[in-house]
Amino acid sequence: MAVRQHLYALAAEGVVASTADPNGVGRPAKQWHLTPAADVFFPHGYAELTAELLSSMAHAFGQSGLDKIIDIRLRDQIDAYRDRMAKDRTVARRVRRLVEIRNAEGYMAAAMKDGDGFLLVENHCPICAAARACTGLCKAELELFETVLGDGVTVERTDHILAGARRCAYRITKAGSRAA
Hints:
Strand content: 15-25%
Order of helices and strands: HEEHHEEHHEE
């Protein structure tokens, strides 16, 4: 009974769920299983694996080969972002859409008006371990933002998690203007 009470408490938190197993006579047995919410309690090696793969690619193909792989990823991202931003005609709308896209990718992004431009803030970096192993990913990110936000837009990184900041932040302005 004590175990069942613990299972019910975990189910209330969304960590486990049960299904009825009508097997035999009497009340159906419950089959308990973990939900995706339980994933946080178990170690994952994705970040380490990604960093190791990047290191192995650089070793196998050289820095130029790794740069080529990053460039291919960048082009794919640009295509995907542009598809999602196709109807957004103004810089303000493109910035809002960029925030939506980045949030869907886990960046905890927000944007606010900043003088005559915008400040894009990313409070989380889901690729931080990979970016530590390969700083080319951060460089590509700047190019991604400038490309999808359109001609005449300048993006400047003002805060960088890899440099010790608590977040990554980008000042977005029209070329030739100065943000406050």
